[in-house]
Amino acid sequence: MEGIMVSVATGAMNSLLDKLTMLLGKEFRLHNGVKRDIAFLKDELSCINALLEKLANMEVLDLQMKVWRKQVREMAYDIEDCIDDYMRRPDRQRSSGVIGFFRVYVQKVKELVGRHGVAQQIKELKDRIVEVKHRRKRYKLDSEVDRGTNNVLSIDPRLPALYVESSDLVGIDIPRDQLINMLDDGEPSLKVISIAGLGGLGKTTLANEAYKKISWLFDCKAFVSVSQKPDVKKILQIILSQVKNQDCTNTETGDENQLINSLRGFLKNKRYFIVIDDIWNTQAWKTIKCALIENTCGSRILVTTRIVTIAKSCCSPHHATVNELRPLNEADSISLFYKRIFGSEDLCPSNLKDVATEIIKKCGGLPLAIITMASLMTTKLDSREEWVSVCNSIGLGLQNYRVEEIERILSLSYNDLPYHLKTCLLYLSMYPEDYKVDMFQLVRRWIAEGFVKVESGRSLVDEGKSYFNELINRSLIQPVSIGLDGQATACRVHDMILDLIVSKAVEENFITPIGDPMQTLVSQEKVRRLSIDYRAPEAVMSRSSLIFSHARSLSVFGYSEKMLSISNFQALRVLDLESSVKLQNCYLQNIGDLFQLRYLRIAASSITRLPEQIGELQYLETLDLRRTWIRKLPASIVKLRRLIFLLVNGLQLPEGVRNLQFLEELSGVSMYNECSKDSLQELGSLTNLRTLRLTWHISDSRSDRAAYTDILASSLGKLVSSRLRFLCIVRWPGSADIPLDSWSSPPHLLRELYVPGCCFQRIPEWMTSMANLYRLSIRVKQVTQEILHILGALPALLDLELRSEAADEPMEMLSFCNSQFRCMKIFRLYGPIMGLMFEDGAIPELEALSIEIRACQVQSAFAGHPDLGIHHLTSLRDLNVWINCGGAILQEVEVLEVAISDAVNLISNHPKLYFHRDNQEEMVKDDTIMPCN
Fold first, then answer.
1. Can you give the pTM of this predicted structure?
2. Residue limits of the NB-ARC domain (predicted)?
3. Interval 6-25: pLDDT, tens
């Protein structure tokens, strides 16, 4: 893909060339001599850039060429920084200063071209390739760098099976069952079990499979990752949140001792199951273990680690519970390799089988290596020669399980990437180990850095998603939380791949990570992108030899009293602050100096306000304040005319919002009683919006509520008839109802509509034409057969939440036939209904069902023998049944539960069944006759 603005291959060269072209335009009235110098720069740098793009496809460069390439890239960065500084000050003298500046750089380019003439370098490259012709087969020297990666890609359909479905994982059954037997052995005392083994052997996968299988047997559960530099306080908060099944990150404050005491108190009399994944040192384990109280309820702790001595320490003195994970055997390795590429061994072309056998052998039974190699080979299915070439490149293999050899295999997949994807992958080294990287945040950062170029008329976000999906397809990042639409919403980077990309990013002076005590940086270069991890108390912060003023990106994790001032970072495009409660508002006081800033994310609850200077950031595209305690935006926010993403947490819709015409996402705004009608009306002018999330607080008791609701409904109608794809409205209790059924134009592009607080008297006409809608949550006066008929005809609907409001309305028996909801996977039906019946073939793709049933009415409707037809839901995996016990006798409730249980037992894939009894205090005794209304 040509023309990417910034990349690891060409640095800022393309961006620089664009700016040189701009300087030659009429807007900048420069002297002819200056224009000639700029034109010379542009011409020479264009030639040099062409060579850089050729070098990007070469995997082996001699030292001289590496040094030359490095000089050129650094020079391009420096020239662009100077141009940015010049263009920022249009009022300064544009004569001697700019002439002197360009003459200096013209001379530098002449010297570079003189020492390393482009034509001569290309000739030397050709001569070297001829002399080492045999290496030409091993390394693909192709000047085409996009190689078909410009199409929007969906998630590889085989990936969910590899990461989620145990039936499709290879070699997992026996170790999983053995592990489950160890965990569920009936022993009442607390037991700690460890899984130990090399990175990439599948310790986390095995632990997760056991967790999914048996966690339902325990009163409470948690799965948490630790990593090399653990934030123990955060880990304890996560465990507490999961065992309580609620967010405790804000409610449970205090030091580690307080969190330990809270956990011990909560777990004291409960049977719990905790997985502690990836422990690297005994100190972290000792602290976490303090919180996991010993009891006689049959509780279990499962630990994974790469270090056997730590595994034994965790289980001490019961070393028999240490489970040392082994590589896959030959049969399972073969099965995994072929499953990943072809679906099965039988589908492998005969001319590739001998090469495949050799590749599998060299992977040494390591699942990570096998999956990575398989992902690489899927792009080379038509050429035996390429398979042989890759096989020969692997080297000595993994017989001794040396990490260097695994990295060599992973490097093959890295080298096979087009350079725009190499850039995006290396950028992930900005994040700490085991960090859950949000896909949308990552794509926005890529865009701000200039890594993404629009192709085929798509938006930058859609193009960035395509890059993200391609990295998943190549198994270079691991998908997290794959949604109903097949899109992963986040990813993690495997430790070994992270090691690889960090080393390459540092080598290329692309990323400079600071804070890892295991990593020594000897570079004395200008830092281009900086990631600082202050969280580890022993973090190494030696930075005396590094120059930060030219950094394009700064990520800060944690807090230090010696934090670098943002005033030192004049060239920043990206600023991401993920800190603790200690970060002060004054840290942002000079934010207006960051003239080039495109992306600003603040994740620090101690930040309570933004300075008015924020309005000076004229290039700002993303402002993410969701994890702050900012409750009011400064008035200058509406000056950010290039803002595309405004993400806040309960902030009032700003006055003058109509100025933000570039906005594509507006999330977290609230409409309180103080909200002006003008701002609501202005909302309708943001016709570029694709995503809108808002909270509605306008009170129903206001005399002018109708004016507010009509204006909002009108504004929303304009948005859904424009480009809106996602609409979420949270209506607070006591707020005025919004007449969404008044929309005149059908929202053809809307894909998600979440408005459970807005009650529809009937299904509006516009909803019947929503061909793209795949997620819907609405409230109606009463669920009727007619409503099911209308919604059941929506062709793309995957997720439906339907709430019935009126308990005093006449109710009818609901029937689901085989012609409705043909692709729906999740269905939640809440509210009073007489009963429901699923016919044979109904909702064939349904995987999760939640329903609310009134026991006495169902008993009456089925004449004492309830048969809901649940056994016809052949794809069902999870069933939640809320039984309203009001007016029913105990026997009616029990008969209903037995009938549903029997029906579920008839489904071949054995769905999980959960019963919840409501209003048990309103049950009647068996000898009491009470009519059921």
1. 0.79
2. 177-343
3. 888 878 878 878 887 877 77
